Amino acid sequence: MPEMLKKFIRDIPDFPKKGIVFKDITPLLNDTTALKRSVYLLCEPYLHNRPDVVVGVEARGFIFGCAVACELGAGFVPIRKPGKLPYETASASYDLEYGTDTIEMHVDAIKKGANVLMVDDLLATGGTMAAACELVRNQGGNIIGVSFLVELAFLNGREKLGDYDIRSLITYD
Amino acid sequence: MPEMLKKFIRDIPDFPKKGIVFKDITPLLNDTTALKRSVYLLCEPYLHNRPDVVVGVEARGFIFGCAVACELGAGFVPIRKPGKLPYETASASYDLEYGTDTIEMHVDAIKKGANVLMVDDLLATGGTMAAACELVRNQGGNIIGVSFLVELAFLNGREKLGDYDIRSLITYD
User: Fold this and answer.
1) Interface mutation target, options A30, A110, A149, chain B, most CBs of B under 10 Å
2) For the segment B57-68, what is each residue's pLDDT rounded down to a tens digit?
3) Which residue pairs from B85-90 have beta carbons closer than 8 angstroms and sit at least 24 positions apart in sequence?
4) Does domain B42-172 have CATH number 3.40.50.720?
5) What's the whole-model pTM score?
6) Between chains, do B30 and A59 touch, taking CB under 8 Å as contact?
């Protein structure tokens, strides 16, 4: 079934820069059946081991993150770019091709020992998600899984994430 | 019931700048029951008049947008900041306190005559949502409703949106 979802992913050559083929998920989001099926499949492994909260990273991680949280009966925690969250935050930085980037989470977002499912649309190099997992661990969260709609396996993002239960619905080798 | 949701909204004084009291929705997102109830109440008026797609604006509009789309059995269309959407886009600009801002939508996002529900977490001055509605109308979309979790009624955002079916779960006068 996940392979059927692949036909809703559109290749955009040379985006965001020359030589890169961008995997555009908007046709999948636009299709009622493909969207509902994707959310269900992201939830399925955790139906009998439900997380207390689902964490998603701004901006595209918000799309599936909250939908998965609702389907699993969990809360949703947004991780955001610096200066966006209004309450006290903790931050983590990660390397980009050139320079670094930072993400933030509210310090009261995760209760100690809470079971946490991390969700994003895309696993590329894994830098953002590794930083997000660090924020959750630092607050005492127990990460029960890290789930993606799409994985670009050739970028080896899994290696950066370590020993979690890492899943993706659609893989490009 | 919507009034019960109010206790999950946290006031943050002087954010993002001095004199403004920010309505922080993250405690509501974090609470399983309040989150699920909010999504249901956003959907309720459209259960018997379902949209073909739900539209949400980056970034916080993605949180409820996709969850509402899934609950209603609709597709989800993201409107994004400039340069983020990979395919051909249409854009609309709107005034800020100082300067202007621009948002973009894929040109193939809305089928002509499609019924569209617009969703965001917050109605403040209404500038962003008015521009989003313009993008949808320009593609021939039929806006059946514009729904918010929170409305800051004292900012008169409704006036900027015109004659739509505008709803909000929590209102601050």
Assistant:
1) A30
2) 999 999 999 999
3) B85/A26, B86/A12, B86/A15, B86/A16, B86/A22, B86/A24, B87/A10, B87/A12, B87/A24, B87/A26, B90/B135, B90/B138, B90/B139
4) no
5) 0.97
6) no
